[in-house]
Amino acid sequence: GAVVSQHPSWVICKSGTSVKIECRSLDFQATTMFWYRQFPKQSLMLMATSNEGSKATYEQGVEKDKFLINHASLTLSTLTVTSAHPEDSSFYICSARDTASGRVNIQYFGAGTRLSVL
Amino acid sequence: GQNIDQPTEMTATEGAIVQINCTYQTSGFNGLFWYQQHAGEAPTFLSYNVLDGLEEKGRFSSFLSRSKGYSYLLLKELQMKDSASYLCAVRDEGGMTTDSWGKLQFGAGTQVVVTP
């Protein structure tokens, strides 16, 4: 299957700092990528849809000024958590949709980034 | 919106069969996906159903009934490595002003524990 690379896998930062997470589709182009957040033993919650060359679409209740998304190329989307606070500590996962013919637009996921804000 | 229900946990022995049920209530439907997720790792794609019926792929099969809002994932010949969380996800229909392929909404996941 298609490969999605997410970096870093683990980050610890001080409260008030910003953290950038990268999501790359390695062997396919992705005009659309998604950012999810997952708390322990809970479901993946969609935060936003990242669209190449245009603004991201945020889900209700997600602060767009706090979670900045940039999708500047067909293989890279970034999520920046600005002025992080302890309540932002979570597991963030990205996915990229493979729109190649015959793949029914499957979403492939990155390995996730565990963010701990002290 | 979507409401997706699946059991929290199931336990089975190695070599056995386990069936994970998923029910959904949806305002729009454009496919149902099953993913496997090991602790601390990314979900990996298992199966996709958009029409009624059974899709078989090796030891894993997935069934869909759109009229009943029901799907199941069948795991045969269980192996220890199958111990993981299994996520049911429904894709909506998208829209004119949103992504036309729709978004996935996930159930809370079913933790399958395989014992020797």
Shape of chain A: globular
The percentage of residues in β strands of chain A lies in: over 45%
Strands of chain A, count? 11
Number of helices of chain A: 0
Q: Main beta sheet of chain B: strand number and arrangement?
A: 6 strands, mixed
Protein traits:
heterodimer; A: 118 residues; mainly beta; seven-stranded mixed beta sheet; 11 strands; B: 116 residues; five-stranded antiparallel beta sheet; globular
Structure summarized in a few sentences:
The complex is a heterodimer of chains A (118) and B (116). By secondary structure, chain A is an all-beta fold. Chain A has strands at residues 4-7, 10-13, 19-25, 32-38, 44-51, 57-58, 67-73, 76-81, 90-97, 107-109, 113-117.
Outline the fold blueprint.
The complex is a heterodimer of chains A (118) and B (116).
Chain A: E1 4-7, E2 10-13, E3 19-25, E4 32-38, E5 44-51, E6 57-58, E7 67-73, E8 76-81, E9 90-97, E10 107-109, E11 113-117
Parallel strand pairs in A: 2-11
Antiparallel strand pairs in A: 1-3, 3-8, 4-5, 4-9, 5-6, 7-8, 9-10, 9-11
Chain B: E1 2-5, E2 9-13, E3 18-26, E4 32-37, E5 44-49, E6 53-57, E7 60-65, E8 70-75, E9 84-91, E10 104-106, E11 110-115
Parallel strand pairs in B: 2-11
Antiparallel strand pairs in B: 1-3, 3-8, 4-5, 4-9, 6-7, 7-8, 9-10, 9-11
